[in-house]
Amino acid sequence: MDSQQSRVLVQLRDMILKGEFGPGERLAEIPLAEKLNASRTPVRLALASLEHEGLIEPSPAGGYQMRRFTSQEIADAIRVRGVIEGLALRLLAEDGAPRQLLRELHDCLDEGDKAVHKPTMELDDYAAYVEMNDRFHRLVVEGCGNAAVKRIMDLLDSQPFAAPSAMLPMQSSMQEGQQWMQQAHRTHHAMVQAIEKGQGYRAQALGEEHVEIARMNLDYALERPELAAELMPGMKLVAARR
């Protein structure tokens, strides 16, 4: 994914989660490209990625439209992702990760460090972290050597708010988002360390714990709808849990 597409994807995902589109609203390439000062191709590719994440759906009139979600389907998908990624990490730790995979994971750690450990992150840093985060989790899932794990994760990636980076923008400010990403990236370091030391159960626990912040963000918003409406307007896309 090139830098412009990554930037457009981050911006569109952030707009969705901040409630700039209502349920059923059509998302047209040309107006979005003009709004984001981008060409149509990266917008088209970003919309396809967002459909895969389950954030948008095909429109009967052509193109895409916003969809409505239930909080339960979001919570369920996040929780299952943690279990499946935990299993993938445990398999890597117990079976031993190939050297090439470890090099690629360390490259991700270095890229993440460069993005988050700054006095203030810019949008390009945010996009770089999101791209790194997606690649890190993909390497873990594909590298564990279990075809069933990969098939299940492909299915989860199409569920709303369940993809690795889908919940990252749900913060009240860029500064708060940076603090969240710093914490999440420390866990990435711990995961790789557990793999290298052959600590299967620790690696599994880290994978399951890694998704807890996203799940707590959802619970916090549902318990405080008046605050969520101000801090996370995208929650208007989420129907009641019951």
Helicity range of the residues? 55-70%
Number of strands: 5
What strand line-up does the widest sheet have? 1-3-2
Q: Runs with pLDDT <50, length 5+?
A: none
Report the CATH C-level class of the largest domain: Mainly Alpha
Largest sheet: 3 strands, antiparallel
Tell me the series of helices and strands, N- to C-terminal: HEHHEEEHHHHHHHHE
Distance N to C terminus: 38 Å
> What percent strand?
under 5%
Cα-atom radius of gyration: 18 Å
| Average pLDDT for all residues | 84
Structure description:
This protein is mainly alpha-helical and 242 residues long. The chain folds into two domains: 3-67, Orthogonal Bundle (Arc Repressor Mutant, subunit A); 70-232, Four Helix Bundle (Hemerythrin (Met), subunit A), CATH 1.20.120. Helices cover 68% and strands 5% of the residues. It has helices at 3-17, 29-36, 40-53, 71-95, 99-116, 123-143, 147-157, 174-196, 200-210, 212-223, 225-231, and strands spanning 26-27, 56-58, 64-66, 69-70, 238-239. The strands form two sheets. A three-stranded antiparallel beta sheet has the order 1-3-2. The mean pLDDT is 84.
How would you describe this structure in keywords?
Four Helix Bundle (Hemerythrin (Met), subunit A), two-stranded parallel sheet, single chain, three-stranded antiparallel sheet, 242 residues, Arc Repressor Mutant, subunit A, mainly alpha, 2 domains, globular
